[in-house]
Design brief:
Elements lengths: L5 E7 L3 H12 L4 E6 L4 E7 L5 E7 L20 E7 L4 H10 L8 E6 L5 E6 L6 H4 L3 E4 L15 E9 L2 H11 L4 E4 L3 E8 L2 E5 L1
Parallel strand pairs: 1-4, 5-8, 9-10
Antiparallel strand pairs: 1-5, 2-3, 2-6, 3-4, 6-7, 7-8, 9-11, 11-12
Protein name: Glyoxalase-like domain-containing protein
Length: about 210
């Protein structure tokens, strides 16, 4: 089952231009430029899953830069990786407080922003990319404030068939997910997320 409050998936790579090129070849769908994250050194491209969920491709704004940004572990990547998933709770403060009471700390809520290609500044709040979140299996939490959601703009579309996770210790992951009140199928295996997408080129898997 896919979490109904899914906001977006994060597919990260060490070279954003190559990542977009490879994804377009694989899927037959070309992502559109979202913009640059202010002060983060990253740039993203977007595709819609339909409704209010989407796929974000992210990497260094300058792929040739020697120092890669640490966001979503980009500075450690040699190949693309499905690095994270992001959930939009009804009340982000209440979700963080309850989760801490139940034993999982998703981190403090902090501000982020992105400048669109048209020059518009979008501002929102997100729990930080701290630790590895069980290899990305524990989601980040987002609050878009007054910013228009990315899916309100025309985006190329493909279908998310399924999202699941793997981890050497599934019970520990399930405990964190329960504290956050989110759903993700988790099986035993090397830590990581797996998304199955339907595309014009057929069904593909992102890991």
């Amino acid at each position: 089952m896919t979490e109904p409050r899914l906001d977006h998936l994060v597919y990260a790579g060490p070279d954003i231009d190559r990542l977009v090129e490879r994804f377009t070849e694989l899927s037959g769908v070309e992502p559109v430029l979202g913009g640059k994250h202010v002060g983060r050194g990253t740039r993203n491209y977007l595709l819609s899953f339909g409704g209010a969920a989407y796929l974000e491709l992210i990497g260094p704004d300058d792929p040739e830069a020697e120092d890669k940004p640490a966001t979503f572990g980009i500075n450690t990547l040699t190949e693309p990786r499905l690095a994270a998933w992001v959930v939009r709770p009804a009340d982000i403060e209440e979700t963080v407080a309850r989760s801490r009471q139940e034993g999982y700390d998703p981190g403090d809520i902090g501000p982020l922003s992105r400048r669109t290609p048209e020059g518009t500044l979008l501002e929102w709040r997100l729990t930080p990319n701290r630790g590895d979140r069980f290899g990305g299996l524990a989601p980040a939490l987002i609050d878009w404030l007054d910013a228009p959601h990315p899916t309100t703009n025309p985006l190329p579309e493909l279908s998310l068939v399924s999202l699941r996770g793997y981890h050497p210790d599934p019970p520990s992951v399930r405990k964190a997910l329960e504290a956050l009140r989110v759903e993700l199928d988790v099986s035993e295996g090397p830590a990581g997320l797996e998304a199955v997408l339907d595309t014009p080129n057929g069904r593909i898997i992102l890991r």
